[in-house]
Design goal:
Residues 43-198, 201-265 form the Exoribonuclease phosphorolytic domain. The protein is α+β, with helices and mostly antiparallel strands and 299 residues long. The chain has 7 helices and 10 strands. The longest helix is centred in the last third of the chain and has 30 residues, at 259-288.
Length: 299
């Protein structure tokens, strides 16, 4: 099958990163960030899914609004290293932000912009956002993302079917406008299927932000939050799910929630996962048809 050349939508060229301006902006422009949401609280952003766009064994591109993630699958490849399990295969994951995109310092301090909870060690480094530590801090976020994506997908791949083999997931974050962990999980799941890797089911993921409503002062839930919404959120819940099996593979929460709000957030995440699973399935069906190699939908 000829390679499908992907075309990114809504792209922009990032400005040079200036640490001093970023810190000043984060403390003086809080009000301007509170823009009105242009969709219902339970609605997802415009979605675009493409498969088989590189020469790798399998690949997928996911655009969730302005969040764009590319995943490539390398393998399965046989290896003789002693670190590889001889009775079953090994699944590896690497996440990397596109260099020189001006990664926001606020996402390192709050960790909400990426939709994940950083480890205590990463948070300690993030508290001192000096220019000499920017790359180290970004590396910490990338490692956290890789670990969470790996945890989400581990239950879906029967590694015993690939003894002495390594399957590598290479994720590249082209743009991050919120819910990036969910986008990474979706891209990785589609890329595995595109690479003809055996899976029990496609893993899908959804993110929900919890924040106070300015009009009613009551907590409200926002599905598929953007970067600015995540910065304002009091709590963020991310759920990865095997939809057909109804099995949760990852549940991540940052911020405190009452049991009632937590259950409501999880329920909304489940609804988002089920909807996303349908779109992923349609993307695979379209890819198998002649000339049909992408799916774009609005929910």
């Amino acid at each position: 099958m000829p390679r499908n050349y992907a075309s990114l939508s809504n792209c922009y060229k990032p400005l040079p990163f200036n640490l001093a301006q970023s810190q000043q902006a984060s403390t003086t422009t809080t009000v301007s960030k509170k823009s009105k949401r242009d969709r219902a609280s339970h609605e997802l952003r415009v979605l675009r899914l493409e498969l088989g766009i590189t020469s790798a064994t399998g690949s997928a591109l996911v655009e969730l609004g302005h969040t764009k993630v590319l995943c490539q699958v390398i393998g399965p490849t046989t290896t003789s290293t002693t670190t590889v399990n001889m009775e079953e295969g090994t699944l590896e994951c690497q996440v990397q932000y596109v260099p020189n995109v001006g990664y926001p310092i606020t996402s390192l301090v709050g960790a909400a912009a990426s939709g994940l909870a950083l480890s205590s060690e990463t948070q300690q480094h993030a508290q001192q956002p000096t220019s000499g530590r920017i790359n180290t801090q970004i590396g910490g976020v990338e490692k956290e993302l890789a670990n969470q994506v790996l945890s989400s997908l581990a239950a879906a791949v029967p590694l015993k079917a690939y003894p002495k083999n390594v399957i590598q997931l290479q994720l590249t974050i082209l743009q991050d406008d919120g819910s990036v962990m969910s986008a990474c999980t979706i891209a990785a799941s589609l890329a595995l299927v595109n690479a003809s890797i055996e899976v029990y089911d496609m893993v899908t993921s959804a993110t929900v932000a919890v924040m106070n409503d300015e009009d009613t002062t009551q907590p409200k839930l926002l599905a598929d939050p953007t970067y600015s919404e995540l910065e304002q959120a009091d709590a963020v819940v991310t759920l990865s799910l095997l939809a057909n099996w109804k099995e949760v593979t990852l549940w991540n929460q940052s911020g405190r929630l009452s049991s009632t709000l937590a259950n409501e957030a999880i329920s909304l995440c489940r609804d988002g996962c089920r909807s996303m699973h349908k779109f992923m399935r349609n993307a695979l069906l379209d890819f198998e048809e002649p000339g049909g190699q992408k799916t774009t939908t609005q929910t």
